[in-house]
């Protein structure tokens, strides 16, 4: 079934992990094992590459640019000035553009391109030869040196933006940080609204989240976010936040980062099998949102499967991202209708985009 994944960090993997994502996943992993690479915890354990996406008919993804600014004293990895962070995101953009030149990917930034792309994937020909569509998004706004840079980004295709990532940000507070947006963040939202950039509410601290919803009148989604009621952490949404997003017409993407799926996970220690973390667990989170909404119109897939982790922190029954093609069967077992399953796998994101871009 044609599938949309609303969150992948493809260019980060290409540049910072030095992965050639045009190769099959097993080749990427074999190379990292042969070289005995240990610089990242997920070496030899990747689950995402372009052939794996095509295998599961994941024909459209929301793909990030990502680069953090770290102020003195901030222990998170990141750049020491916003200009350096900007340059990093431009390298990432250059990689996406090179993938376009090669016919591996195609940027989707308006309704016409979206319709053409959907038709291409519907035509019944060999999916292995089709470009993966990508909607350009920015995870954390630190690299937006000033608001003129947001307009530049829009011109190169940026269509969604999450103001924060982990920690304190220049425009908003993120996961494990606390506090409001403040005037700079509100100015950013106003400019996003003018440019029709989608607000990605993922990663916002609670205070920044509520302030953002109050001050932003454009379309809001949450590309990769699970539920606090099932795994209690500030990175997850409370039922109250889920309700507010549903009221705004948002779609929330279920994420496959193991620590967000099952309670009690200790990063770097817990193992997927001993924690009983299988793919089915994401259905619990998706279903929780559906129970709050009273329908299946506000959930989608936002795997985050290449978000600086691999099989060591993914469901144990997932070898590559292609395994998400088992999700429709899991939903069916829970009593979801075929029409609802299509909404979850692509229909909800498409309805959202069609409305946001028309
Ligand atoms: Zn993220």
What does this molecule look like?
By secondary structure, the protein is of the alpha/beta class. Helix content is 39%, strand content 11%. The protein is built from 13 helices and 9 strands. The protein has helices at residues 10-15, 25-34, 50-55, 82-101, 111-122, 147-155, 182-195, 206-215, 239-247, 258-261, 280-293, 327-333, 338-357, and strands at 3-8, 58-65, 105-107, 132-139, 158-162, 198-200, 220-221, 252-254, 299-301. Strands 1, 2, 3, 4, 5, 6 and 7 form a 7-stranded parallel beta sheet that branches. A two-stranded parallel ribbon has the order 8-9. α6 runs parallel beside α7 and α12 (327-333) packs across α13 (338-357). The protein is globular and about 45 Å long. It starts with a strand and ends with a helix. The model has no long low-confidence stretch (mean pLDDT 98). Bound molecules: zinc ion. The site of zinc ion has 5 residues, from loops. Zinc ion (ZN) binds at residues 139, 203, 224, 304, 307.
């Amino acid at each position: 079934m044609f599938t949309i994944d609303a969150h992948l960090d493809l260019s980060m993997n290409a540049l910072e992990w030095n992965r050639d994502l045009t190769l099959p996943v097993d080749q990427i992993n074999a190379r990292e094992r042969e070289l005995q690479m240990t610089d990242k915890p997920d070496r030899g354990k990747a689950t995402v590459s372009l052939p794996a996406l095509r295998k599961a008919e994941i024909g459209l993804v929301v793909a990030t640019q990502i680069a953090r600014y770290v102020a003195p004293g901030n222990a998170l990895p990141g750049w020491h000035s916003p200009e350096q962070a900007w340059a990093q995101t431009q390298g990432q953009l250059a990689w996406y553009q090179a993938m376009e030149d090669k016919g591996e990917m195609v940027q989707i930034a308006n309704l016409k391109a979206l319709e053409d792309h959907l038709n291409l994937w519907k035509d019944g020909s060999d999916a292995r030869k089709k470009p993966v569509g990508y909607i350009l998004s920015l995870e954390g706004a630190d690299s937006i040196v000033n608001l003129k840079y947001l307009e530049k980004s829009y011109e190169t295709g940026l269509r969604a933006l999450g103001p924060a990532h982990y920690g304190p940000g220049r425009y908003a507070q993120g996961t494990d940080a606390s506090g409001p947006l403040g005037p700079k963040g509100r100015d950013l939202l106003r400019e996003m609204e003018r440019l029709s950039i989608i607000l990605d509410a993922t990663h916002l601290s609670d205070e920044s989240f509520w302030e953002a919803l109050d001050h932003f009148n454009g379309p809001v989604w949450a590309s990769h976010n699970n539920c606090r009621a099932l795994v209690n952490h500030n990175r997850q949404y409370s039922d109250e936040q889920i309700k507010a997003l549903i009221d705004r017409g948002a779609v929330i993407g279920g994420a496959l980062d193991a620590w967000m799926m099952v309670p009690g996970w200790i990063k770097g220690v817990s193992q997927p099998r001993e924690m009983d973390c299988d793919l089915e667990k994401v259905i619990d989170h998706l279903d929780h949102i559906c129970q709050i909404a009273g329908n299946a119109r506000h959930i989608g897939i936002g795997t985050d499967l290449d978000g600086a982790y691999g099989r060591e922190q993914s469901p144990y029954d997932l070898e590559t991202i292609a395994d998400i093609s088992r999700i429709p069967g899991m939903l069916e077992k829970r009593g979801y209708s075929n029409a609802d399953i299509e909404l979850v796998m692509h229909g909800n994101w498409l309805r959202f985009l069609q409305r946001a871009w028309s």
